[in-house]
């Protein structure tokens, strides 16, 4: 089985938002206050603490517009945070739900049909390793099983 890397939102994407940039729809991010659990930051991959300010915005974790380039809401600490670095272990935000959707994508950033599945949180690494042994899978997205929100990306190490 291949070693895997859990990848947070690139710092360049977070920096653009923190610097006053707009989201995937050209809109400014909205500021909210965390109510505790359920507000995972896509840059540090930690839950945003209760009463901390956060930004919510439309994020498209794909390089180009195309039919499979899903866009949806994500959260980011309003104050700068460090990008998640412990790439070989599931990040803290993947311990906050009982299950997640994992979906494989090819080199053209298209969904590889038949790879999408709802996976128990304790089985995420094993399922990802099983997909990444395939030559037709370039990377995997982890999404919320309830709301389909993008969580993080998984690559081969």
Structural commentary:
It holds the Pfam family DUF1203. With 157 residues, the chain is mainly β. It has 2 domains: 10-77, first zn-finger domain of poly(adp-ribose) polymerase-1, CATH 3.30.1740; 86-156, no CATH class. It is 11% helix and 29% strand. The protein is built from 2 helices and 8 strands; from the N terminus they run βαβββββαββ. It has a 5-stranded antiparallel beta sheet with strand order 1-8-7-5-6. It is globular and about 40 Å long. The relative contact order is 0.23. The model has no long low-confidence stretch (mean pLDDT 95).
Give a topology summary.
Blueprint: E1 4-7, H1 11-18, E2 30-33, E3 53-59, E4 72-77, E5 99-105, E6 117-120, H2 124-132, E7 139-144, E8 150-156
Antiparallel strand pairs: 1-8, 2-3, 3-4, 5-6, 5-7, 7-8
Query: Total number of helical segments?
Result: 2
Q: From the alpha-carbon coordinates, what is the Rg to the nearest angstrom?
A: 15 Å
Task: Please tally the β strands and state the result.
Answer: 8
Portion of residues within helices: 10-25%
Uncertain runs are none
> Mean pLDDT score, rounded?
95
Q: Give the strand order of the largest sheet, numbering strands 1, 2, ... along the chain.
A: 1-8-7-5-6
Distance between the termini: 11 Å
Beta-strand share of residues:
25-35%
Order of helices and strands: EHEEEEEHEE
């Amino acid at each position: 089985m291949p070693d895997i890397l859990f990848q947070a939102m690139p710092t360049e994407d977070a920096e653009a938002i923190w610097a006053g940039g707009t989201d995937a729809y050209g809109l400014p991010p909205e500021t909210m206050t965390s109510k505790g659990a359920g507000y995972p930051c896509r840059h540090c991959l930690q839950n945003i603490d209760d009463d901390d300010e956060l930004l919510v915005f439309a994020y498209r974790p794909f390089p180009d517009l195309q039919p499979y380039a899903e866009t949806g809401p994500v959260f980011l600490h309003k104050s700068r945070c460090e990008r998640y670095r412990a790439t070989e272990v599931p990040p803290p935000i993947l311990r906050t739900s009982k299950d997640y959707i994992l979906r494989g994508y090819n080199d053209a950033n298209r969904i590889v049909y038949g790879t999408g599945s709802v996976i128990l949180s304790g089985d995420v690494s094993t399922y990802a390793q099983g997909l990444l042994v395939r030559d037709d899978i370039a990377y995997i997205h982890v999404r919320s099983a309830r709301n389909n929100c993008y969580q993080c990306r998984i690559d081969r190490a």
